[in-house]
Amino acid sequence: MPKNKGTSDTTLPPQHQARQPGRESQMRPAPDSKMKGYVGTNKLAGKVALITGGDSGIGRAVSTAFAKEGADVVFVYLEERDDASETRRLVEREGRRCLALEADIGEEQRCQEVIARAVEEFGGLDILVNNAAEQHRQADLEDITGDQLIGTFRSNVFGMFFMIKAALPHLREGARIINTTSVTAYRGSPKLLDYSATKGAIVSFTRSLALALAERGIRVNAVAPGPIWTPLIPATFTAEEVEKFGKKVPLGRPGQPDEVAPCYVFLATEGASYMSGQVLHPNGGEVINT
Fold first, then answer.
1. Spatial CA neighbour of 178 closest among 111, 107, 266
2. Domain of 89: which CATH number?
3. Which structural domain, as residue segments, surrounds residue 147?
4. In this model, does residue 1 exceed pLDDT 60?
Protein backbone atom coordinates (compact mmCIF):
# COMPACT_ATOMS: atom_id res chain seq x y z
CA MET A 1 0.00 0.00 0.00
CA PRO A 2 1.33 3.50 -0.72
CA LYS A 3 2.69 5.57 2.10
CA ASN A 4 0.31 7.98 3.77
CA LYS A 5 0.14 10.94 1.44
CA GLY A 6 -1.82 13.11 3.85
CA THR A 7 -3.07 16.40 2.42
CA SER A 8 -1.40 18.18 -0.44
CA ASP A 9 -1.55 21.43 -2.37
CA THR A 10 0.07 19.83 -5.40
CA THR A 11 -1.50 21.03 -8.64
CA LEU A 12 -1.77 18.80 -11.68
CA PRO A 13 -0.30 20.19 -14.89
CA PRO A 14 -3.00 21.33 -17.34
CA GLN A 15 -3.56 18.62 -19.95
CA HIS A 16 -6.24 17.13 -22.14
CA GLN A 17 -6.59 14.00 -24.25
CA ALA A 18 -8.83 14.25 -27.29
CA ARG A 19 -10.25 10.73 -27.23
CA GLN A 20 -11.76 8.21 -24.89
CA PRO A 21 -10.68 5.96 -23.42
CA GLY A 22 -7.68 7.95 -22.28
CA ARG A 23 -4.13 6.65 -22.27
CA GLU A 24 -2.23 6.33 -19.01
CA SER A 25 1.05 6.40 -20.93
CA GLN A 26 0.29 10.00 -21.97
CA MET A 27 -0.50 11.35 -18.48
CA ARG A 28 1.87 13.71 -16.66
CA PRO A 29 2.52 12.93 -13.92
CA ALA A 30 1.80 9.26 -14.40
CA PRO A 31 -0.75 7.90 -11.92
CA ASP A 32 0.44 5.71 -9.06
CA SER A 33 -1.10 2.49 -10.34
CA LYS A 34 1.67 -0.08 -9.99
CA MET A 35 1.22 -0.86 -6.28
CA LYS A 36 4.94 -0.35 -5.70
CA GLY A 37 4.75 -0.32 -1.92
CA TYR A 38 2.12 -3.03 -1.55
CA VAL A 39 3.22 -6.31 0.01
CA GLY A 40 0.83 -9.18 -0.60
CA THR A 41 0.27 -12.05 1.83
CA ASN A 42 -1.32 -14.62 -0.51
CA LYS A 43 -4.86 -13.66 0.49
CA LEU A 44 -6.03 -14.66 -3.01
CA ALA A 45 -3.76 -17.65 -3.61
CA GLY A 46 -5.29 -20.07 -6.10
CA LYS A 47 -8.00 -17.63 -7.19
CA VAL A 48 -8.82 -16.45 -10.70
CA ALA A 49 -9.92 -12.84 -11.08
CA LEU A 50 -11.36 -11.01 -14.08
CA ILE A 51 -11.22 -7.21 -14.18
CA THR A 52 -12.83 -5.06 -16.87
CA GLY A 53 -11.04 -1.83 -17.71
CA GLY A 54 -7.89 -3.44 -16.35
CA ASP A 55 -5.39 -1.79 -18.66
CA SER A 56 -4.93 1.43 -16.66
CA GLY A 57 -5.92 3.49 -13.65
CA ILE A 58 -7.90 1.72 -10.95
CA GLY A 59 -8.17 -1.43 -13.08
CA ARG A 60 -4.40 -1.67 -13.43
CA ALA A 61 -3.87 -1.15 -9.71
CA VAL A 62 -6.48 -3.81 -8.87
CA SER A 63 -5.00 -6.28 -11.36
CA THR A 64 -1.53 -5.78 -9.88
CA ALA A 65 -2.71 -5.95 -6.27
CA PHE A 66 -4.62 -9.17 -6.95
CA ALA A 67 -1.49 -10.65 -8.51
CA LYS A 68 0.54 -9.63 -5.48
CA GLU A 69 -2.02 -11.50 -3.39
CA GLY A 70 -1.53 -14.67 -5.44
CA ALA A 71 -4.37 -14.53 -7.98
CA ASP A 72 -4.13 -15.25 -11.68
CA VAL A 73 -5.61 -12.35 -13.63
CA VAL A 74 -7.73 -11.89 -16.72
CA PHE A 75 -8.33 -8.29 -17.68
CA VAL A 76 -10.41 -6.73 -20.43
CA TYR A 77 -9.62 -3.52 -22.29
CA LEU A 78 -11.17 -1.69 -25.22
CA GLU A 79 -8.27 -0.70 -27.49
CA GLU A 80 -5.43 0.68 -25.33
CA ARG A 81 -2.85 -1.93 -26.30
CA ASP A 82 0.26 -0.17 -24.95
CA ASP A 83 -1.35 0.36 -21.54
CA ALA A 84 -2.60 -3.23 -21.58
CA SER A 85 0.91 -4.53 -22.25
CA GLU A 86 2.18 -2.69 -19.18
CA THR A 87 -0.53 -4.13 -16.95
CA ARG A 88 0.23 -7.63 -18.19
CA ARG A 89 3.93 -7.05 -17.46
CA LEU A 90 3.12 -5.97 -13.89
CA VAL A 91 0.95 -9.02 -13.24
CA GLU A 92 3.45 -11.46 -14.72
CA ARG A 93 6.27 -9.83 -12.76
CA GLU A 94 4.53 -11.18 -9.65
CA GLY A 95 4.80 -14.70 -11.02
CA ARG A 96 1.11 -14.94 -11.87
CA ARG A 97 -0.52 -15.93 -15.12
CA CYS A 98 -2.22 -13.14 -17.05
CA LEU A 99 -4.62 -13.04 -19.97
CA ALA A 100 -5.38 -9.67 -21.60
CA LEU A 101 -8.48 -9.62 -23.81
CA GLU A 102 -9.50 -6.80 -26.14
CA ALA A 103 -13.30 -6.46 -26.17
CA ASP A 104 -16.18 -3.99 -26.10
CA ILE A 105 -18.16 -5.10 -23.06
CA GLY A 106 -21.20 -3.20 -24.33
CA GLU A 107 -21.75 -6.11 -26.71
CA GLU A 108 -23.27 -9.13 -24.97
CA GLN A 109 -21.71 -11.64 -27.36
CA ARG A 110 -18.24 -10.27 -26.62
CA CYS A 111 -18.84 -10.63 -22.88
CA GLN A 112 -19.83 -14.26 -23.37
CA GLU A 113 -16.68 -14.82 -25.40
CA VAL A 114 -14.49 -13.18 -22.74
CA ILE A 115 -15.89 -15.35 -19.95
CA ALA A 116 -15.62 -18.50 -22.07
CA ARG A 117 -11.99 -17.74 -22.88
CA ALA A 118 -11.14 -17.02 -19.23
CA VAL A 119 -12.72 -20.27 -18.03
CA GLU A 120 -11.04 -22.23 -20.82
CA GLU A 121 -7.65 -20.74 -19.95
CA PHE A 122 -7.81 -20.95 -16.15
CA GLY A 123 -10.44 -23.60 -15.44
CA GLY A 124 -12.83 -21.36 -13.54
CA LEU A 125 -13.55 -17.92 -12.14
CA ASP A 126 -13.65 -16.74 -8.52
CA ILE A 127 -13.71 -12.93 -8.63
CA LEU A 128 -15.36 -10.58 -11.12
CA VAL A 129 -14.55 -6.86 -10.97
CA ASN A 130 -16.77 -4.68 -13.16
CA ASN A 131 -14.69 -1.54 -13.51
CA ALA A 132 -14.85 -0.35 -17.14
CA ALA A 133 -16.67 2.94 -17.74
CA GLU A 134 -16.86 6.06 -19.85
CA GLN A 135 -17.96 9.63 -19.12
CA HIS A 136 -18.51 12.73 -21.23
CA ARG A 137 -18.65 16.26 -19.84
CA GLN A 138 -21.56 18.39 -21.04
CA ALA A 139 -22.49 21.83 -19.71
CA ASP A 140 -26.26 21.30 -20.06
CA LEU A 141 -28.67 18.40 -20.29
CA GLU A 142 -29.74 19.71 -23.71
CA ASP A 143 -26.23 18.97 -24.97
CA ILE A 144 -26.47 15.24 -24.20
CA THR A 145 -27.42 13.45 -27.39
CA GLY A 146 -29.37 10.23 -27.51
CA ASP A 147 -26.27 8.47 -28.81
CA GLN A 148 -24.20 9.70 -25.87
CA LEU A 149 -26.85 8.67 -23.35
CA ILE A 150 -27.21 5.20 -24.82
CA GLY A 151 -23.44 4.78 -25.20
CA THR A 152 -22.72 5.74 -21.60
CA PHE A 153 -25.35 3.34 -20.24
CA ARG A 154 -24.18 0.62 -22.64
CA SER A 155 -20.61 0.81 -21.35
CA ASN A 156 -21.30 1.47 -17.68
CA VAL A 157 -24.47 -0.52 -16.95
CA PHE A 158 -25.33 -2.87 -19.80
CA GLY A 159 -21.75 -4.16 -19.92
CA MET A 160 -21.90 -4.93 -16.20
CA PHE A 161 -25.15 -6.89 -16.67
CA PHE A 162 -23.72 -8.77 -19.65
CA MET A 163 -20.49 -9.72 -17.86
CA ILE A 164 -22.28 -10.95 -14.74
CA LYS A 165 -24.88 -12.85 -16.77
CA ALA A 166 -22.12 -14.64 -18.68
CA ALA A 167 -20.06 -15.32 -15.54
CA LEU A 168 -22.80 -16.59 -13.22
CA PRO A 169 -22.84 -20.21 -14.48
CA HIS A 170 -19.16 -20.43 -13.53
CA LEU A 171 -19.30 -18.71 -10.12
CA ARG A 172 -19.45 -21.09 -7.20
CA GLU A 173 -20.30 -20.50 -3.54
CA GLY A 174 -17.77 -18.06 -2.09
CA ALA A 175 -17.30 -16.14 -5.34
CA ARG A 176 -17.14 -12.33 -5.27
CA ILE A 177 -18.55 -9.70 -7.58
CA ILE A 178 -17.22 -6.16 -7.09
CA ASN A 179 -18.68 -3.24 -9.04
CA THR A 180 -17.18 0.22 -9.48
CA THR A 181 -19.65 3.03 -8.85
CA SER A 182 -18.69 6.63 -7.98
CA VAL A 183 -19.05 9.42 -5.47
CA THR A 184 -21.20 11.10 -8.14
CA ALA A 185 -23.92 8.50 -7.45
CA TYR A 186 -24.34 10.06 -4.00
CA ARG A 187 -23.71 13.79 -4.45
CA GLY A 188 -24.40 14.18 -8.16
CA SER A 189 -22.40 16.04 -10.80
CA PRO A 190 -24.03 18.84 -12.84
CA LYS A 191 -21.80 18.33 -15.88
CA LEU A 192 -21.80 14.52 -15.80
CA LEU A 193 -25.54 13.90 -15.70
CA ASP A 194 -25.68 10.67 -17.68
CA TYR A 195 -22.53 9.28 -16.06
CA SER A 196 -23.87 10.03 -12.57
CA ALA A 197 -27.13 8.32 -13.49
CA THR A 198 -25.28 5.16 -14.50
CA LYS A 199 -23.36 5.17 -11.24
CA GLY A 200 -26.57 5.51 -9.24
CA ALA A 201 -27.96 2.57 -11.18
CA ILE A 202 -24.88 0.55 -10.25
CA VAL A 203 -25.49 1.17 -6.53
CA SER A 204 -29.07 -0.09 -6.81
CA PHE A 205 -28.00 -2.99 -8.99
CA THR A 206 -25.30 -3.99 -6.48
CA ARG A 207 -27.77 -4.01 -3.60
CA SER A 208 -30.41 -5.94 -5.53
CA LEU A 209 -27.95 -8.48 -6.93
CA ALA A 210 -26.52 -9.07 -3.46
CA LEU A 211 -29.99 -10.07 -2.29
CA ALA A 212 -30.59 -12.20 -5.37
CA LEU A 213 -27.35 -14.17 -4.98
CA ALA A 214 -27.21 -14.48 -1.18
CA GLU A 215 -28.66 -18.00 -1.17
CA ARG A 216 -25.97 -19.07 -3.64
CA GLY A 217 -23.23 -17.81 -1.33
CA ILE A 218 -21.99 -15.22 -3.83
CA ARG A 219 -21.20 -11.84 -2.29
CA VAL A 220 -21.74 -8.64 -4.26
CA ASN A 221 -20.28 -5.30 -3.19
CA ALA A 222 -19.07 -2.07 -4.75
CA VAL A 223 -16.47 0.68 -4.47
CA ALA A 224 -17.35 4.36 -4.97
CA PRO A 225 -14.13 6.26 -5.68
CA GLY A 226 -13.93 10.02 -5.39
CA PRO A 227 -11.62 12.13 -7.59
CA ILE A 228 -8.93 9.66 -8.67
CA TRP A 229 -6.12 10.48 -11.14
CA THR A 230 -6.89 8.09 -14.00
CA PRO A 231 -6.91 8.40 -17.83
CA LEU A 232 -10.63 9.17 -17.70
CA ILE A 233 -9.85 12.59 -16.21
CA PRO A 234 -7.73 14.20 -18.98
CA ALA A 235 -9.95 12.46 -21.54
CA THR A 236 -13.06 14.10 -20.04
CA PHE A 237 -12.19 17.55 -18.75
CA THR A 238 -10.52 20.66 -20.16
CA ALA A 239 -6.88 21.38 -19.36
CA GLU A 240 -7.96 24.10 -16.93
CA GLU A 241 -10.37 21.77 -15.13
CA VAL A 242 -7.69 19.10 -14.83
CA GLU A 243 -5.44 21.63 -13.10
CA LYS A 244 -8.10 22.04 -10.38
CA PHE A 245 -9.09 18.38 -10.22
CA GLY A 246 -9.54 16.97 -6.72
CA LYS A 247 -8.85 20.22 -4.87
CA LYS A 248 -12.28 20.49 -3.23
CA VAL A 249 -12.23 17.30 -1.15
CA PRO A 250 -11.17 17.53 2.52
CA LEU A 251 -7.75 16.03 1.81
CA GLY A 252 -7.22 18.72 -0.82
CA ARG A 253 -5.87 16.54 -3.63
CA PRO A 254 -6.87 13.84 -6.11
CA GLY A 255 -6.40 10.27 -5.01
CA GLN A 256 -4.24 7.69 -6.75
CA PRO A 257 -5.34 4.29 -8.08
CA ASP A 258 -2.99 2.65 -5.57
CA GLU A 259 -5.06 4.20 -2.78
CA VAL A 260 -8.26 2.65 -4.11
CA ALA A 261 -7.13 -0.88 -5.02
CA PRO A 262 -6.90 -2.11 -1.39
CA CYS A 263 -10.69 -1.69 -1.13
CA TYR A 264 -11.08 -4.25 -3.90
CA VAL A 265 -8.59 -6.58 -2.25
CA PHE A 266 -10.54 -6.43 0.99
CA LEU A 267 -13.88 -7.14 -0.71
CA ALA A 268 -12.33 -10.05 -2.63
CA THR A 269 -10.96 -11.80 0.47
CA GLU A 270 -12.40 -13.67 3.43
CA GLY A 271 -11.97 -10.49 5.46
CA ALA A 272 -15.23 -9.31 3.87
CA SER A 273 -17.07 -12.61 4.35
CA TYR A 274 -19.93 -10.92 6.24
CA MET A 275 -20.39 -8.08 3.77
CA SER A 276 -22.72 -8.05 0.78
CA GLY A 277 -24.69 -5.27 -0.85
CA GLN A 278 -22.27 -2.69 0.59
CA VAL A 279 -20.26 0.19 -0.88
CA LEU A 280 -16.80 1.38 0.21
CA HIS A 281 -15.93 5.07 -0.21
CA PRO A 282 -12.28 5.99 -0.92
CA ASN A 283 -13.04 9.61 -1.72
CA GLY A 284 -10.60 11.94 0.02
CA GLY A 285 -12.62 12.44 3.17
CA GLU A 286 -16.00 13.48 1.76
CA VAL A 287 -18.83 12.33 4.03
CA ILE A 288 -21.50 10.63 1.94
CA ASN A 289 -25.03 9.66 2.98
CA THR A 290 -25.22 5.98 2.12
1. 266
2. 3.40.50.720
3. 45-226+257-280
4. no
Residue 133, domain member (yes or no): yes
Residue 38 φ then ψ, to 5°: -85, 130
**For the chain, how many structural domains are there in total?**
1
Tell me what the pLDDT averaged over the chain comes to. Answer: 94
Active-site position among 77, 186, 195, 264 = 195
Let me know if residue 16 belongs to a domain: no
Residues 69 and 17: their CA atoms lie apart, in Å, by: 33
> What is the residue type of 93?
R
Whether 195 is a known active-site residue: answer yes
Question: Which of 109, 48, 100, 62 shows the shortest CA–CA distance to 78?
Answer: 100
Give 28-63 pLDDT, tens digit per residue: 898 888 899 999 999 999 999 999 999 999 999 999
For residue 287, is it within any domain? no
- DSSP string computed for 170-230: G--TT-EEEEE--THHHH--TT-HHHHHHHHHHHHHHHHHHHHHGGGT-EEEEE---SB-S
99 located within any domain: yes
Give percent of the chain above pLDDT 70: 96
